[in-house]
Amino acid sequence: MSLMMAMMTRNPVSRFCFAVECPFLETRTNTRLTERNSQLQMKSAYELAMERLQKQAPEVKLTDAQRAKLGELDVLYKAKRAEREVFLRGEIAKAEARGDGEALESLQKQLAHDLRRIEEELETKKEKVRSGGK
Fold first, then answer.
1. Residue 54 in contact with residue 41, Cβ under 8 Å?
2. Dist CA 132 CA 117 (whole Å)
3. Which of 6, 19, 43, 134 would suit a FRET pair with 28, their CA atoms being 20 to 30 Å apart?
4. Residue 90 CB coordination number (10 Å)
5. Which residues of 30-68 are buried (b: 16+ CB within 10 A; e: fewer)?
6. Alpha carbon of 17 to those of 2, 30, 109: distances in Å?
7. CA separation for the pair 73, 65 (Å, rounded)
8. Terminal CA-to-CA distance of the chain, rounded, Å?
């Protein structure tokens, strides 16, 4: 029995059966409507943003060789960063001990610049590996 048929009859129960939750409608109709409602669930803003991102820039599958190369680059550049940071922090400590404010400021700027340059170099090489170049 469809919803329209139930509403046309003089059955007193049919007056209260306006929504999907009506237990008096046929089970087949309830199941169909419930399935359709589950497909129309609201999505969060995060899910919508991720769908848009996938359309704009689909996820790229990396090969095992590419993953290994990316791992090597991470280790290498982590070491470069640590080496530069240890050296310059030692120089900064010496400048502080001497009370040389000008050298201290210069060394701090150099540290920030070198760390930024190392990060940019790492990202450039990673992008090259991701795009397929060696």
1. no
2. 23
3. 43
4. 11
5. eeebeeeeeeeeeeeeeeeeeeeeeeeeeeeeeeeebee
6. 11, 11, 73
7. 12
8. 67
CA 66, CA 110: separation in Å to the nearest integer?
32
pLDDT tens digit sequence for 35-62? 555 566 788 999 999 888 888 877 778 8
DSSP 78-105: HHHHHHHHHHHHHHHHHHHHHT-HHHHH
pLDDT in tens, 75-128: 999 999 999 999 999 999 999 999 999 999 999 999 999 999 999 999 999 999
- Is residue 112 within 8 A of residue 81, CB to CB? The reply is no
Hey, what amino acid is at 75? V
pTM over 0.85: no
Tokens standing for residue 79: 């070491």
